[in-house]
Amino acid sequence: MLNPDETLEDLLGRGLRDLRISVTDRCNFRCTYCMPKEVFNRDHAFLPHAELLTFEEIARLAAVFVSLGTRKLRLTGGEPLMRRDLETLIAMLAELDRAEDIALTTNGSFSPERVHSLRAAGLRRMTVSLDSLDDAVFMAMNDVQFPVIQVLAWIEESIAAGFAPVKVNMVVKRGVNDDSLLPMARHFNRPDTILRYIEYMDVGHTNGWRMDDVVPAAEILRRLQAEMPLEPLDPNYRGEVAQRYRNTDTGAEIGLVASVTQPFCGDCSRARISADGKLFTCLFAIGGADLKALLRGGASDDDLRAAITGVWQKRIDRYSELRTAQTADLPKVEMSFIGG
Ligand code: SAM
Ligand code: SF4
Ligand code: SF4
């Protein structure tokens, strides 16, 4: 157990501050950049239920991470709301004293009523993914004909439930939705949302990523600044992935996540647990350490702490700083599996 201000450090001096927990590898969308239909179809072997960590196992692991200095927990997937009774897990995590933040990343496709029970269970922050306001563009990207209006309703209800500012993630792919950059900025030009433009990444190895498809954050900024006055803001904390800007007219904040063109591995304090309980120390990892085997093999909390410490203290990951056209073809774990 570390003191509250201490944290475990890896070989590059990076703390273990942030844990992303994938609660399922399933999703009701087939976003072309994440779970392309040709691969994630009827023949795809999703994890059987018995292989998923139970809520008790997740909460136990989260407690061990928190005892090692982790302060932020994010539930993700796949689509985390596909996991039944997610509120029960949130309530279990909310009991961890030293966890300062419990956040959710969702595609916002469920009944907006749900945001209230998530809030009541102890969820603190809401991130919603939305790639365009144009139905034709959004539907081509989610590839299941899901309409924009329902995601907007989720965002509005989240604000009403007290989650403001709600983060809105837009993955930008050249020639697909870059025409939506400005309409999105105009729509979310308000203080209760933070629109974050995310460079399209070569996560996994099934999305056919090419550098030409990436719209660099610097270009996104130029295109926005042609229309609105944006000034840079200081990061909220060390290791924040988004470069922050504020519209000086309206006070609205936007973020740019330049994972491809301006990598931020130097400050990366994030670990990930896949839905089947593997610990990954990089979004672009090829393999992970099997914590579920330890959990189900009767490991004590000290054993788990030792295993996690051993992995983190050897960590040298900095994939995005080393990315080349060749590394894009490595057999990396899919984002829907490892958790975005
Ligand atoms: N299903 C939830 C959702 O879409 O918000 C949570 C999981 S999703 C994998 C988490 C985030 O990763 C989403 O904001 C999504 O847009 C982003 N993402 C997925 N594939 C990506 C890619 N190839 N490049 C950049 N971001 C990606
Ligand atoms: Fe599903 Fe999210 Fe991946 Fe889209 S980005 S396919 S909503 S997990
Ligand atoms: Fe962190 Fe890996 Fe992304 Fe670098 S590439 S910021 S080490 S997750």
Topology overview:
Blueprint: E1 18-22, H1 55-67, E2 72-76, H2 86-94, E3 101-106, H3 114-121, E4 125-129, H4 135-142, H5 148-160, E5 166-172, H6 181-187, E6 193-199, H7 217-225, E7 230-233, E8 243-247, E9 253-257, E10 270-273, E11 278-280, E12 289-290, H8 291-296, H9 301-313, H10 319-322, H11 335-338
Parallel strand pairs: 1-2, 1-10, 2-3, 3-4, 4-5, 5-6, 6-9
Antiparallel strand pairs: 7-8, 8-9, 10-11, 11-12
Helix pairs in contact: 1-2, 1-9, 2-3
The structure holds S-adenosylmethionine and iron/sulfur cluster (SF4) (2 copies).
Describe this entry's structure for a reader.
With 340 residues, this protein is of the alpha/beta class. The protein has one domain (18-338): TIM Barrel (Alpha-Beta Barrel), CATH 3.20.20.70. It has helices at residues 55-67, 86-94, 114-121, 135-142, 148-160, 181-187, 217-225, 291-296, 301-313, 319-322, 335-338; strands at 18-22, 72-76, 101-106, 125-129, 166-172, 193-199, 230-233, 243-247, 253-257, 270-273, 278-280, 289-290. The protein has a 12-stranded mixed sheet with strand order 7-8-9-6-5-4-3-2-1-10-11-12. Helix 1 (55-67) packs parallel to helix 2 (86-94), helix 1 (55-67) crosses helix 9 (301-313) and helix 2 packs parallel to helix 3. The radius of gyration is 19 Å and the shape is globular. The mean pLDDT is 94. The structure holds S-adenosylmethionine (SAM) and iron/sulfur cluster (2 copies). One iron/sulfur cluster is lined by residues 27, 29-31, 34-35, 77-79, 107, 129, 336. One iron/sulfur cluster (SF4) binds next to helix 10.
Features:
twelve-stranded mixed sheet, 340 residues, TIM Barrel, binds S-adenosylmethionine, globular, alpha/beta, binds iron/sulfur cluster
